[in-house]
Amino acid sequence: MHLKNLFCAGILAGLSQLPAALAASERPDKVRIAVIDDVPSTIAAVQILETAYQRLDINMTTLVAPSRRALLMADTGNLDGDLFRIETVAEGYPNLVRVDFPLLKGKLHAVVRNREIQQLPESRTNDPIKVAIRRGVIIAENTATELDMESIHAESYKQVRTLLEMRRVDLAFVASIEGITPLANADWHHLHILPEPVATFTLHHYLNRRHAGLAEDLAEVLVQLEQEGVRGQILRTVRGKQRDGEW
């Protein structure tokens, strides 16, 4: 009886190891991830995720696509995932699974011409406040809608700045992600950043639901990269290159 119990316990112990072993064997050799554009925060996120995927022996490649198309391609399974999104955006795509450990955190800043302005202007019923927004930055689009502002889209932050300088808009919304922001560039220093951010947000990596198990593994690896200082080093390098004008 004693031997039988030991035998059963051994079988149960072996079975308990199967899910992890199967998960490892079912991992893809490579993944294709949608990215919005080759801006500094995207570069940082790509480098962090490439490092994480490498630790899982997975080769990560990227495909640049417009913001909503990128989400759709990841949701339908044409791509394996989307680089990063705020949670409220991803909620509309049921086939996306969140990698729980935060990839990046950011703030959305309002920029104006007049240095004496210290807070957002009040909304106007018949003449809405116009705000310049970089196309594809959905947190900026959503914030403008919530504040009853009229969004004027631009294809780059340089165009956003030009719209503000030429008085085509009342203000601009510019993201700062982990200190990586166009606002660090000297070209923006003659403009005024309002003291308080208009929004804060967390960006998570998302995978198609067929990679649900991989999402759990990635979260664990991202924790390791954080604890080992690898993530911080990547961010410092990207911030340094931005200050030096390489991006």
Any overview of this molecule?
The structure is a single chain. With 247 residues, the chain is of the alpha/beta class. The chain folds into 2 domains: 30-104 and 203-244, Periplasmic binding protein-like II (D-Maltodextrin-Binding Protein, domain 2), CATH 3.40.190.10; 107-201, D-Maltodextrin-Binding Protein, domain 2. The chain has 8 helices and 10 strands. The protein has helices spanning 2-26, 40-55, 67-76, 87-90, 138-146, 157-165, 212-228, 230-243, and strands at 30-35, 59-64, 81-85, 96-98, 104-112, 130-134, 150-154, 171-177, 192-193, 199-208. Strands 1, 2, 3, 4, 5, 6, 7, 8, 9 and 10 form a 10-stranded mixed beta sheet that branches. The longest helix has 25 residues, at 2-26. Residues 1-25 have low confidence and may be disordered.
Name a few traits of the molecule.
42% helix, D-Maltodextrin-Binding Protein, domain 2, Solute-binding protein family 3/N-terminal domain-containing protein, signal, 23% strand, alpha/beta, disordered N terminus, 247 residues, 10-stranded mixed β-sheet, single chain, globular
